[in-house]
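Margin note: ligand = zinc ion.
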Amino acid sequence: MGKRLLLAWLVACWPGWGIAAPLPVEEVAPGVFVYAGAHEETSAANRGAIANVGFIVGRRCVAVVDTGGSLAVGQGLREAVRVRTELPVCYVINTHVHPDHLLGNAAFAGDKPSFVGHARLPAALAARARTYLAALSRALGPEAGGTPLVPPDTLVQDTLTLDLGGRRLALRAWPTAHTDQDLTVFDEQTGTLWLGDLLFVERIPAVDGSARGWLQVMASLRGLAVQRAVPGHGPATVAWPAALDAQERYLATLVEETRRALQRRLTLQQAVDSVGHAERGKWRLFDLYHPRNVTAVYTELEWED
Ligand SMILES: [Zn+2]
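Resulting structure:
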């Protein structure tokens, strides 16, 4: 049974009234659980379960890393925690503003956790809240109702260490890359690095910050001593640092070819029609996101020195 079918089946058959079916998570390292999202856009069928989300269990409490694209997905993740442990959720960490990573936050409100994000996350969320909720409503219909936004109350300027009881998580806020509020989470006990959307695997990367900045951040990430990585999209875990290679090639190609297009004074449309097309076939959702990426990079590079 495919993952999506399995999820649909669980949602349909889970006993209880108003209790969400637990998201099927995988234990990728002791006490580290990941649900690998589908490579799709948010729809009524997937309810926004399209990003990788999960949790880390300490001796005292649990930290959740990203919460999914709707309240329903967040509730499924909360149930997945409950299946594994009775410990409370003390931290809900959002890796960045994108709705597939944080619209499930409200499912954890009953735990009264700290909601943790990059120092620039509240402003980004405030600016986009209406757009995100309207898009969710279009995609999910009535089921989107009751998905409130929960902003972070604990902000990371640079680095922050969280203690789950005998288990420390090292959080780091990065300069503008995928977005202007990317946060990574490193579980010291198992050497597991959660990258959020600083790492896309299989699904095409989406540039919503700075392609040049992202390449610089990737160069810094590459040097980290990491046992395994959890990408924002892709398998639950990937090999490090080899998993960076494809994304680095894509972004470098995007920057180089767009720069050349600008030097040749191509219009934006001509750039969209010509830049990076050797990458087609190497990424899921290429036709949906690649033109947007060229547009973003064209705008980014247009006035560079
Ligand atoms: Zn993202």
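The CA atoms of residues 223 and 241 lie 8 Å apart.
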